[in-house]
Each structure stands twice: as C-alpha cells, then as structure tokens.
Amino acid sequence: MTKQYQALSPGHTACAGCGELLAMRHALQAAGPDVIVTGATGCSEVTTSGYPDSSFGMPWIHSLFENSSSVASGIAAALRYQKKQDKIKVIATGGDGATFDIGFGALSAMWSRGDDILYICYDNEAYMNTGVQASGATLPGTSTTTSPSGAVEQGNMMPKKDMPAIAMAHGCVYVATASPGYPIDIQNKVKKALTMKGPKYIQLLSPCVPGWGFSTDQAVKLGKLAHQTGLYPIFEAVNGQITSAMKVPKPTPSVSAYLELQKRFKHVLKNPQLLATIQAIADANIVKYGL
Ligand SMILES: Cc1ncc(C[n+]2csc(CCOP(=O)(O)OP(=O)(O)O)c2C)c(N)n1
Ligand SMILES: [Mg+2]
C-alpha cells in the first residue's frame, strides 16, 4: 500500500471547525511535498508546531512574527546556490496581522527583489492568536477586542487594506484570492502559482470560530457567503491584469446573509447606516471585478 502524502496531519490543536487550518490544508496539500514552507507566528503556527511535534509533512520553519518573507528569501537564495531552485519551491505563509501589518516591510522587500516565492496569507481579518485585535485586514464595523462596538464607536473605523492590489502594484506575477468555501479553487490557484517564476501572492479567507463568533459547522458556508455577497471577491490576476473572477449568484444575496451568522457583526444589523456602508463595499466589488 502506498502511503499517501499528508501536508497537514490530524492531531494539531486548532479549534474545532477552524477555517484557517482548512484553507491551509487545501493549499499545502496542492503544493505537494517538494516545497519548503516558512510560517509566521500566529494560529497556523501555534496549533501545529508545539515543540517537539509538527503536523507538517514538508520541511516547515517557524520564523518570527514579522519575517516569514525574509526567512523564505534566505532559503530561496540557498536553493539557488545549490542549483535546486527548479526542484524545490519556497512558500512563505502568515496570518493577516503578519502580512498586512507587522511583516509588511519584509514582504514588500521580498516582492521588490522579485524572489521566486509564493506568499500565502491566511486572512481571518484580525489578530486571532492573541485574542481578536483589529488588524489592517479587519472590515469596517467589525467588533474586535480593540474596536468593540458600544455607545461611542460601532466597531472598527478603518478600511480593510487592499493587499491584492498592493501585491499587484509590486509587480507580483500572480495574485489571487480564494476561500475554503471552494477547495478545488484554492488547490488550482496554488498549483498554477507554483508553475510561475517570480513573486506570487495568494490570500485565503479563513473563517475563525471564536474570533468571528459562529458555530463550528459554518466555516465552509461562510467561505461561500463571503464570496456570494460580493464582500470577498475571488479572482486572479496575472502580471497585474485581472484574468478571472468568480461570478456571484443573481439575484445576489445581501451582505446581511453573511453578517447575521457572526457575532462580530451583531450590532451592524441594528444600525442601518453601518449596514449600508458594508453593503456599499460589496456592491463596489461587484462592479470593480465584474462579478
Ligand atoms: C513582533 C511581535 N509582535 C507581537 C507578537 C504577538 N503575536 C503573536 S501571534 C499574534 C497574532 C497573529 O495574528 P495573525 O497574523 O492575523 O494570525 P492569526 O493568529 O490570526 O492566524 C501576535 C500579535 C509577536 N509574537 N511578535
Ligand atoms: Mg489573523
């Protein structure tokens, strides 16, 4: 009997129903065993690699929170020196906090150097591992521990950074978004990215049971609804041009269908102005990406 390669083994300590590890498993399984992966500090790391154990089937290296990209660049340089760069691919990974904020300088530098590395961001829209603090990926109106909804403010006041556009502006050869609502799409995008030379960026929506406040069987449903409402556009861009986008159903469900399943948006449903602000983000995505 052939032993099947498992990129991520059972026995990790992620929450039941974790959307981040689901997204990660699909992505890394599709990448296959001939890869070296770096992982920034965050849920995808603490739940998988408590010393002396590892859930990973490939060489996987924990970096600091802020330098997953720099460690990946060093590995890519070593592989070039050994003339192994065509056989072994390098993947850098991190949560949205590591990617959008804390590791952004190192990531920008990695892209600017044009390193042949795929960067995968697990976007659960907050710093979950340390207790749900708002990040540059948090949507306006989201209640987090640093942007609680209350009498004065109604959740996060800042816009979500458009990281795929920032990646495209750096000249990434391939940029894509995906969600665990559509596992085959994740797998196809990772496989495609790894056939291309140069810097690549894939952003995976990662529904978080405690941080978003939903029941443990809803991560896949939320992964679909985020796309179907237009709030999380799923697309790919090659050499700075959008080449495909997943269409939303017609009629398109309102954002309430997505928000009402999550405690982080409970106050939004009682605030017509805030609800309209979030609906406007989805509507603008539908126009911008031709969904
Ligand atoms: C320089 C530095 N600042 C802060 C921390 C504390 N810290 C560890 S994990 C984490 C949150 C990670 O958030 P994110 O990157 O979004 O990943 P998630 O846990 O949400 O998957 C923080 C703030 C740290 N380890 N290093
Ligand atoms: Mg996060």
Structure, described:
About 35% of the residues lie in helices and about 15% in strands. The chain has 11 helices and 8 strands. The chain has an 8-stranded mixed sheet, with helices on both faces. α1 crosses α7 (about 185-195) and α3 (about 70-80) packs parallel to α5 (about 105-115). The model has no long low-confidence stretch (mean pLDDT about 95).
CATH class: Alpha Beta
CATH topology: Rossmann fold
Task: Assign the structural class, choosing from mainly alpha, mainly beta, alpha/beta, alpha+beta, or little secondary structure.
Answer: alpha/beta
- The geometry reads as globular
Strand content: 5-15%
Rg from Cα: 18 Å
Average predicted confidence as pLDDT? 97
CATH architecture: 3-Layer(aba) Sandwich
Order of helix and strand elements from N to C terminus: HEHEHEHHEHEHEHHEEHH
Can you tag this structure with a few keywords?
single chain; 291 residues; alpha/beta; Rossmann fold; 8-stranded mixed beta sheet; 8 strands; 35% helix; globular; binds thiamine diphosphate; binds magnesium ion
Give a brief outline of the structure.
With 291 residues, this protein is α/β, with parallel strands linked by helices. Helices cover 35% and strands 14% of the residues.
